Amino acid sequence: MMSVAVALLEVGSGDGPAVRAARVAAIASQHADAVDAEGRFPREAVDAMRAERLLSIQIPAALGGEGASITEIAELCSILGQACAASAMVFAMHQIKLSSLVEHGADSDWHRDFMRRIASEQLLLASATTEGGIGGNLRNSICAIKIEGDTCFLEKDATVISYGAHADAILITSRSHTEAASSDQVLTVFLRDQYRIERTVEWNTLGMRGTCSDGFLFKGEAPAAQILPKPFAEIAAQSMLASSHLLWSGVWYGIAADAVARAQAFVRAAARKSPGTQPPGALRLAEVSSLLQMVKSNVVAGLKVYEEAKADADRLSSMGFAVAMNNVKIASSEMILPIINHAMLICGIMGYKNGTPYSLGRHLRDAHSAQLMISNDRILGNTSTMLLVHKQDTSLLG
């Protein structure tokens, strides 16, 4: 078998990211059911991402990447999501962490060099923002980073580190110092040889099983230069939350799109068996097509808002922008379940059974994660607070 290192040298320079993502998706699709059934890391798909140099597409060209936009990356998330939701989510979460480096590490020599290394070696980044005692509230930390001379030390009870055992580096949040408030946070890069992780919680879940989001006790020691220079509050508001909502939505759209494609294939097969008559499920197919278009329109509109806001730091940090991004996540995560349910009704028992061309059980289970990452109740609570003082945007012009 060709090694990843050799394959990296043989990627067609004329192939765009979408073409390369389609090749990865073909590999991911072959292993998607096994990844789900065994609850294992989608190593074949991630190796293919490395071989296609997709892990660095967001990095500026001057640092060895391709300078891909959030819209282009969301499209790749959708392509991968139609093949294997776990593989797509790993890719999305890697790109979310990479956005923190690209948008907030450009003024740091260490982080620029690290981006060059990511591009050269196709390193996989993981995230550790959750913590025992605060759950998924990423804007608060209990642990604090300690700096002694030029070295920083951190211990964290990280209740979830998605694919943490398989990552090449972890970007981890903490209080900025031992006396800091819980919301006074920093984000630090730790390389694989700079930390130890001890598994404390096993990821045995209904869906998204291949993300291997175990909990770990993290202990790291690294040069203090690896702390990102910007406060985490700024990183979260201006890039991380928006990219999370948009790229996750791209993955969820991909799951729903594949469910509808399977339903369409089922109806077409029924139509071929009875020429001249409308097959059962045809009207439901038309209905679910309109629902899928609503999800697509929601994600596309959100991407447009983000792309337009990127040049204005004040707009990125505004309540109006936060409300818009929150609404994209809420709408996308809540709409995909009705879509997959419609597809299941169209396919009937063939969709309910595993191992058929129309099976939708994996899609349905993976889709249930959408409202829990980050909890929709938490997001709605934050949005409701902002709407007490912010006027709802009612313009169709954005």
Can you put this structure into words, describing what you see?
With 398 residues, this protein is α+β, with helices and mostly antiparallel strands. It has three domains: 4-123, Butyryl-Coa Dehydrogenase, subunit A, domain 1; 126-226, Beta Barrel (Butyryl-CoA Dehydrogenase, subunit A, domain 2); 232-387, Up-down Bundle (Butyryl-CoA Dehydrogenase, subunit A, domain 3). The protein has helices at residues 4-10, 17-38, 43-51, 70-81, 85-104, 109-121, 232-273, 282-309, 313-316, 319-347, 349-352, 361-367, 376-387, and strands at residues 125-128, 146-148, 151-158, 169-175, 185-191, 195-201, 215-223. Strand 2 (146-148) and strand 3 form a beta hairpin. Helix 1 (4-10) crosses helix 3, helix 2 (17-38) crosses helix 4 and helix 4 (70-81) packs across helix 7 (232-273). The longest helix has 42 residues, at 232-273. It is globular and about 80 Å long.
